[in-house]
């Protein structure tokens, strides 16, 4: 009986420690991702798994959006020929095209995607520079098959990072508390 009681005490203690560690990790995960994520412009020559890209996209479409309109479209390209044909890319192995009717909603979506990518060990950089070339290229626009009324807002390049840039200083004086 003593052995059983002792075993139960050990089991409960272990469960409590695991539960506490998971709770502590969950409490800091988002803030750590926000503070740790950087724009990556150098990538390893290693393809991103489709499952990870799916997870990133699903995190994106779970972003808050005005009146739950979900007025966006996500297109993911891993085709090397297509990716290399877009000026301004940095060697990532996937591109996520985000289109929508509301730029704010799309921005929230993009942030969800980039933080999820970071959590999965991937690097990202958000790009608007290539948009002119993409919008002016009828072949690419046709491949994107965007619904009517959707405007391409930005592209997120994704890949396994081959650099770890330091954080740039932030202007803390932009934060003011109103009395």
What does this structure look like?
The protein is 45% helix and 15% strand. The chain is an alpha+beta fold and 179 residues long. It has a domain at 50-159: NADH Oxidase. The chain has a 4-stranded antiparallel sheet. The longest helix is centred in the N-terminal third of the chain and has 35 residues, at 2-36.
Mean pLDDT: 89
Question: If classified by CATH, what would the architecture of the domain at 50-159 be?
Answer: 3-Layer(aba) Sandwich
Number of strands: 4
CATH topology of the domain at 50-159: NADH Oxidase
Stretches where pLDDT is under 50 for at least 5 consecutive residues are 4-14
- Report the C-alpha radius of gyration, rounded: 21 Å
State the CATH class of the domain at 50-159: Alpha Beta
Strands, helices and their partners?
Elements: H1 2-36, H2 50-61, E1 72-77, H3 80-84, E2 94-100, H4 103-119, E3 123-127, H5 131-135, H6 138-144, E4 151-159
Antiparallel strand pairs: 1-2, 2-4, 3-4
In short:
The protein has 179 residues and is of the alpha+beta class. It has 6 helices and 4 strands, in the order ααβαβαβααβ.
Question: What key phrases describe this protein's structure?
Answer:
179 residues; NADH Oxidase; 6 helices
